[in-house]
Amino acid sequence: MPRDQSRPVVLIVEDEPLIRMEAVDMIEEVGFRTFDVGSADPAISLMEAHDDIGILFTDIDMPGSMDGLKLAAYVRKRWPTVSIVIASGAVDVETLDLPEGAYFFPKPYPTDQIARALEKVSDRCG
Predict the structure, then answer these.
(1) What's the domain range around 88?
(2) Quick one: how far is CA 36 from the chain centroid?
(3) How high is the mean pLDDT of the chain?
(4) Which of 61, 64, 67, 55 is nearest to 102 (CA)?
(5) Could you tell me the CATH number of the domain that includes residue 38?
(6) DSSP output for the chain
(7) By CB neighbour count within 10 A (0-12 exposed, 13-18 middle, 19+ buried), where does 108 fall?
(8) Whole-model pTM?
(9) Could you report the per-residue pLDDT of 69-96, keeping only the tens digit for each?
(10) Predicted confidence (pLDDT) at residue 126 exceeds the cutoff of 60
(11) C-alpha radius of gyration, the chain, whole number
């Protein structure tokens, strides 16, 4: 599917390169443009440099200065209009302190559910 220039860009933050490539492919296949990085620090740098990023798609368990939950909380506070999608295979969603309005998906990624969630948040952004 061609990438829709009117949609917000999705920033994918995942430390495992193969999983990150799979996420990029999945999200680009449903028509979104993407940036991808392996940890929170470069994610924040990209957010500061690109005001077209409208969706953060992040893993939870990552190396670096903050994990995905802390990154999500930081993004929610600093860029409150950015939609947040969190995915993880190692946690129980019941115990998570998700930012308000964030979506959570277990790994392996439920591609069709994530695509629907991205469509929904994209509609809200536009």
Answers:
(1) 9-117
(2) 9
(3) 88
(4) 55
(5) 3.40.50.2300
(6) ----TTSPEEEEE-SSHHHHHHHHHHHHHTT--EEEESSHHHHHHHHHH-TTEEEEEEESS--SSS-HHHHHHHHHHHSTTSEEEEEESSS-GGG--PPTT-EEEESSP-HHHHHHHHHHHHHHH-
(7) exposed
(8) 0.90
(9) 999 999 999 999 999 999 888 766 666 7
(10) no
(11) 13
- % of the chain surpassing 90 pLDDT: 58
Tens digit of pLDDT for each residue in 27-42?
Answer: 999 999 999 999 999 9
- The 8 Å CB, 24+ separation contacts for 72-78 are 72/98, 72/99, 72/102, 73/99, 74/40, 74/44, 75/47, 75/99, 76/100, 76/102, 78/47
| Domain contains 125 | no
pLDDT tens for residues 110-120? 888 888 888 88
50, part of any domain: yes
Asked whether residue 53 is assigned to any structural domain, the reply reads: yes
Q: Tokens 């390169």, residue?
A: 17
Q: How far apart are the first and last CA of the chain?
A: 19
